Amino acid sequence: MQSTSIKKNLPLILIAPLLIAAAFPVLAQQASPNTGNPAVDAQAATRMNVPGGGRDMRASEVIGKEVKNAAGETLGDIEDLVIDIDNQRVSYVLMSAGGLLSLGDKQFAIPSERLQPGQRERDPLVLRVSKEELEKAPGFEPDKRPNFSEETYRGAVDRYFFKEERGRYTPSGARLMSAEQLIGKDVNDRAAHSAGEIEDLVVNFGTGRTYAVLEVNNALNPKDKLVALPLKAISFPQRPDLDLLLNIDRPLIEKARGLADAGWPDVNSADARKQIDSDLARLQSQVKSNPGATQTGRETSSGASR
């Protein structure tokens, strides 16, 4: 009987490894955000398991969104996103208390992986945290927003939500910035000529991956052009009032194809994702550690910029 059973199931036994092998490249591609930091990439691969977390979203459209729990009850609204610019990922969402939470004007920093996008763009976000857990979470007053680059408050948030899962903490020493403050920032080349401005940031709560979309200031092309830009391609001064600097040669951006539509394409469509992923990988490979070594496209034969 056992021999007969094996013979009947032999085709399935032979086919199964082939199916797994065929699926593996797709799975590997989905779980590879490629931030450039192996530890963060490994963590992001785990975060891909978050239900519905594979959808990219514009930060400007996430800010202001309503947040509900799994039962559909309102918990509050998204006030801002906190971006880990060193590791190119969204780390926290800042949420104001409301609805079920009778906590006045208190705000919370929630690890971004605890949020799940809705099925449609206009749907509220779903927070996978209980009301009781949220009410006891470390909070702050709106006019006393902490510096997330300092580990005092950030460490308290990580310890509260992740307990002993230290591998999921924000990396020590990481520099974090507000998405609201980054959107609209001017970006210059090394000769202080405007290269454009940050039109928006695109975030993914499943992988954590975050990239910028630059509205290119291209004198040779009067049409507005949007280019997906890795955060590693930008230098962020310590002073928030200063403009950002390119870490790549400006002509690479000016010659880039840009996003497909005159406006914003569906960044989750297969064609858009393929192009965006290709552009991000190509530009990331051209990042220079010293912004002063980048080319502006206006160099003279002596190497100086005009």
UniProtKB/TrEMBL annotation:
Keyword Transport listed: no
Superkingdom of source: Bacteria
Keywords, in A-Z order: Signal
Pfam families reported in the protein's UniProt record: PRC
Entry protein name: PRC-barrel domain-containing protein
InterPro entries: PRC-brl_dom, PRC_barrel-like_sf
Signal peptide: 1-28
Keyword Transferase: no
Coiled-coil region: none
Cited PANTHER family: BLR1072 PROTEIN (PTHR36505:SF1)
Stretches assigned to the PRC-barrel domain: 57-115, 177-232
Annotated region (Disordered), positions in chain: 284-306
Lineage: Bacteria, Pseudomonadati, Pseudomonadota, Betaproteobacteria, Burkholderiales
Gene3D superfamilies, A to Z: PRC-barrel domain (2.30.30.240)
